[in-house]
Write a structure and sequence with these properties.
150 residues; alpha+beta; Arc Repressor Mutant, subunit A; Alpha-Beta Plaits; 5 helices; 20% strand; elongated; Winged helix-turn-helix transcriptional regulator; DNA-binding; ArsR-like_HTH
């Protein structure tokens, strides 16, 4: 396991906000030489602490401004039912997150689509036909005061 000291914490904090920062600027921000900073970043990558870099998209500018979290309950509680539901969610382009959770339901799903009519179509045609689904509870996002992913 990689040691997460104060400097590594700073590196991770800066990279989580700006994954495209140059090594030179990152080194300046955390108070290291560029070569020492690069070695630390590479070690964090090798250790899997940093698992990748990605672009953060403004999905509303891509026509997906309607966001909903959906609690999904399954009527059968076995591996086959879970795998069947997960396969259905994997191929649905509106589903951007699908989490198997504990509690009174089995899944929490994040859906992004253009508007309420397109959500209704997803609700009816995808969730309504997904295997083993017995309950669907939608939570429409009206605003996002905090999201560390962006």
């Amino acid at each position: 396991m990689t040691k997460i000291d104060r400097i590594n914490q700073q590196i991770l904090q800066v990279l989580s906000r700006d994954g495209r920062i140059s090594n030179l600027e990152l080194a300046e921000r955390v108070g290291l030489s560029p070569s020492a900073c690069l070695r630390r970043v590479q070690e964090l990558e090798r250790a899997g602490v940093i698992s990748g870099y990605r672009a953060v998209l403004d999905r509303s500018k891509l026509g997906a401004g309607f966001v909903s979290y959906i609690g999904v309950g399954l009527g059968v509680h076995n591996k086959d039912a879970q795998q069947a539901f997960e396969r259905a969610m994997e191929v649905a382009p509106e589903v951007v997150e699908c989490h198997n959770i504990t509690g009174t339901i089995e899944y929490l799903v994040r859906v992004e689509c253009a508007d309420l009519p397109s959500y209704k179509k997803f609700h009816t045609d995808v969730l309504g036909t997904a295997p083993y689904v017995t309950s669907i509870t939608s939570y429409v996002v009206m605003g996002t005061p905090k999201d560390l992913r962006t």
